[in-house]
Amino acid sequence: MLARTADNLFWVSRYLERADFLARLIEASSRIAALPTAYAGAQDEWKSVLIASGADETFFDHFDKADEANVIAFLAFDQRNPSSIRNCIEFARTNARAVRTALTVEMWEGINCAWLELRKFEAAHEAHGHIDREELIGFLDYVKTTSSLYDGSGYRSMLRNDAYYFSRLGVYVERADNTARVLDVKYHVLLPEQETVGGSVDYFQWSAILRSVSALTAYHWVYRESIKAWNVADLLILRPEMPRSLISCYDNIVRFLDAIAGQYGRQGASQRHARNIKRHLEGASIGEIFQSGLHEFVEAFVTENNRLGSQITEQYLIG
Amino acid sequence: MTFQKAIAPMTAPCFDEMNGGGSESPSEPRALYGRIARWLENAPRGLLESRRQQAEMLFRRIGITFAVYGDKEAAERLIPFDIIPRLLGHDEWRRLEVGLIQRVKALNMFLTDVYGAQEIIRAGVVPAGLVLRNPAYRPELQGRRVPHDIWTHIAGIDVIRVDGEDFYVLEDNCRTPSGVSYMLENREMMIRLAPDLFADHRVLPVENYPDALLASLRSVAPPHCPGEPNIVVLTPGQFNSAYYEHSFLADKLGVELVEGRDLAVRDDVVYMRTTEGLKRVDVIYRRVDDDFLDPLAFRADSVLGAAGLMGAYLAGNVTLANAVGAGVADDKAIYTYMPEIIRFYLGEEPKLKNVATWRCREPDALKYVLDHLHELVVKEVNGSGGYGMLVGPHASKEQIEAFRQKLTSAPEGFIAQPTLSLSTCPTSFPGGVAPRHVDLRPFVLSGADGVRIVPGGLTRVALKEGSLVVNSSQGGGTKDTWVLETDAATQ
Amino acid sequence: MRASVQFQLQVYFPEPVRGLNQIFRLTPRGFDSQEVREWRVDVLPDATLRRGEDAFGNVVHSCSHDGPLDSLTVMAEGLIETHDAAGVVRGLVEKFPLDVFLRDAPATHAGGELAAFARDALAKEADPLGRMHILMGALHKTLTFAAEETEAPRPAPEVFSARAGSARELAQVFVAAARDLNVPARFVSGFYLGVGDVGEASPHHAWAEAFVDPIGWIGFDPALGFCPRDAHLRLATGLDYFGAAPRRAVCLTTGREDRRAALNVDAGRQASWQFQQ
Lengths: 319, 491, 277
What we know:
The complex is a heterotrimer. By secondary structure, chain A is an all-alpha fold.
């Protein structure tokens, strides 16, 4: 297939996954921000959301204060923020439009309808200058639905060939990145010494983390105990049954890279690198990770994951 | 679809595809349209309107849109679709078909000659300057042969009717005619929205167009191409107004849709960049204009083409469809010579009529034109999109005088035509049904193995009352074109 | 004049480039007053140089480099013998009817100011040959010849308004003015083998040819103000600069390039005889 086609498919998936993540992040943070200070802690929730979404640098070029209205406007609708939800959907659709022939009708219609829908939300947002909470919930739901729809219709209708593999690869590379981002921003509330302090503050932070990666229910099924920092980190990094954990993402990345290599009859740098990361995750225990530093671990992971992205680009997407 | 139709508004009632005669006269509908007339009569109130809305919704969902240059608001607009089909009897179609085949054969022979021996110039049939100084003539191609001497593989010939008999050619499109995706999608829409009406008529299918196109493209692969040729569609990209059509065609053909940046030329061979490395390309159905094909040969600032493409083309390692330089045959000035061109190469009388044209470069013609400015349409030879055009019956005294001066000072730049009235066809509106002017663009495919035409084409309709402008960029709409199994006179 | 000519162009890419495609029109053709004894074109790093001929009869070499490439050398050298024929070009195989050389193109469209200037200058002269000489003289006097070359030549009207331009720009101005007067004209690119006159900035030179009935094609050099003599080595011709450019290059990665060109002329040398190897 055309290198550019693979590139477009890879990025449609990445952008939609990112939009989905941002929607969940905003949702979870709105809950924390609405809690009494005694529960939410003194830390600046909206600022950490900006950091997690990688928008903290550009944000202050345009706004003075990181309050709820500003941050949500910037993350959801602002064209100036390259990773705002509206830009993610727009970029996803632009990419999808460039490879219409590689998408099934269901996938294209899903994403095209979402884009048409986006314009309505945007118009409403522009008309009032802000968006009220009810509308926001509707918008975030719509974003999540869009990415599920694309994901699901791809799963149901795409031929299992390289087009499908590249599309899936995009999902998992982005997802691994997003999960790592949350961990990185919130690592301080996951540190063991914080746990000994205990108390309600951390409890709500942890549940917010779980919510932002839609793992709150999953947590209870896996651990059958109340939320503990140690477990939260374990769940998000090392539990293979948790679909957003780093290790689960890498299970899939390795699988789809192997499928591509199988189809083309040729392995390469990205296959080898992905296998290395996966082996590294498999060999790790949560105890060791905390011992050698959660922050350092996550930081190293983000770097390696980005490197994989570049290797995939170099190996397949430039041609 | 950017050329403006420069036929002045009618002064007398004109031929109506459904009612015949003048659209004003409430005569019996033609036998051909009997079922349509009954359907329109019996349709419950609001049916047409609801179908129209359904069609719009479907088109938008599939994303069949076109971009209008310089119109940011409506960056992706729909071309209005009209639910009432335009019908042609089988006999009418056969007459049109033989005329189209003849015309496209002559166009290809003309191009072969113009880039070869130039006999038609030496014979004095077409003036040398008209060809050689034409912007669409490409000196780079002089002395070159293209595979099987086919230059315009896909031609769109715009025809109109003014009565029940003759078809007039309004314009030949030999470069990259668009609109075929609408022909195919309109049919799908009709089958979906008016299944009974469709089933009542025996309509000749158009859905085999992609197969016919593929066969034509395969037949012109470079002679030494081993095995199955690798065919691609080359698009300027998704911001081009016809991008939907490009992706649609690539999809239906089952070939890759490439942009210039997907191509790489190495040592006179064209490749496309794939996830498995470079893959050789043999035939390019290009929807990029000549000027932008290769920054090494043409416009140096083009990023839409591939550097070295012309080298590969001239070396015979890749076939471009349509050929570079084919545009010289569809020029407005050359158009006026089409009857002579057909006679010169084929020794036959043209089967399709040309709209009578006065070439102002000829003194007698100029005199006539100057005397009749108020009733003629005067066009600039190299103008397009309706710029530099005078519609006599609609023009003010000042405009006419301004044109008189232009004509006197540079007559060779102008041609003039009488005001013809395009036929009308019933068209639905929120308020009811009314006659509107239509034209027809059939698509003619030329391959090594002959000419292929699917029965039908794109019927364009001017939605504004009295308007003769059917261009999509100017608010024109489209209709499905039904060529029936039976002749026009059969009930 | 009899000379051994060595041309060398060195190109440096600050950012290494990939997928470079180039064409060269660096091979002179022989005609009555220009004999090419031997000639070769070479490129470094090595690449297959394909030799072909374009529609105007120019010899065109083309090559592809995958890269990455940070520098490149192009060489053209050989032995030639030229004679002063007062600019008259005879003995070339002409590929086109004259109408082609009246084509209007953006780069060589005269525009109002230049057209009026040319008409004024020629008002008193009726002889076709005399008219072209006057046009050359008038342009030479009015426009300052700047040996420094711009990246791409500006369109003729722009150059005329600026009253200054490089050799190739002045040549295009001449072509534009001649065509506007309905005289078939074409652009010529070449080397100037004389010393001093064209400056050190670039060994490339350019002039124009006009078709003067009944003599035929005659060269006019508006930059130097005289018809080509034996110091003009004619390389290629075209409707405008772009059709005759000595080198055109496009690469995948858009990169800046720095060029250094040098021309070495060893005049009066006898061509050496060749022997069976």
